[in-house]
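Notes to self after the Tuesday call (sharing in case useful).
The group wants a holo model before anyone commits to mutagenesis around the pocket. I volunteered. Ligand is copper (II) ion. Logging inputs and output together so the record is complete.
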Amino acid sequence: MTQLFEHQLAALAHPDLLVRATAAHDGGPGPRTFADLAALRRAQPVEKVRKSEKDLTDTERSRLVGAFTVLNQSGDFGKLVAIHADMGHHQHRMTNAPDDLGARRFLPWHRVFVNVLETALQRIHSDVTVPYWDWTADQQVPDWLSGVLPTVVVPGAMGGVIRVTRSPGSQQDLRRRTAKLDEVMRSGDFMSFVDGLEHIHDLIHDWVGATMSDLSTAAADPLFFLHHANVDRLWWTWHVTHQNENPPLTGDDAVMDPWRVTEPTTRDIGNFHYSYR
Ligand SMILES: [Cu+2]
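Result:
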């Protein structure tokens, strides 16, 4: 024991190590206090990769389903479902007006919403991310999710108990509903892009049917978040080549209530520390 201890001391006394050990304290950028360390860690959160649900391992799938279950049992999942059910947040197109507020908020609002859910899941298991359901590649309800049909208690005046069900259409029908996606991805301006994408998104909610087809219950289906991660991924893909095309929002309209995130923050997914693969 003593020998080992002395060996370690000798290693620590190595001039090279001593130089490196003191360098950060000589007015350099290194942390000086434990508060500095904490701030440093906060400033460099781990990047989380959102993968296709097809590419998740069995472990990743059961981890995700487990985290959903714990979040649901805590009541926090139901609170998120209640937030999405409140159309007062103007998060979907409500009128045919070209400049409809909900249409302008649809993408940034749901980006924040999925991120809030993902962060809540990560508090339960730090390795969880929300995978995306690429409905052009996996033209069915992902088979590993087909048995995941939770019962969700939603608080509030409009709340209640939601027993998640689905009544998906055929594969051919799903293909037909997504047929215009390539055209949408070629849109030149933000409003054309979001109008096309929100429309396809609506058609997929309807294709899944039952819980997913009703605005007041949709977010109770875990599949909702995989669907919206895909919508978010498509927005991110399009935005890479259309950096100057962003939702026209100012003042309170740009605040993604009930959160305080504003629209400019939502333009870069790096601000939320996730990426797509
Ligand atoms: Cu949706």
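Two things stood out.
The chain has two domains: 1-44, 51-276.
The chain has a mean pLDDT of 90.
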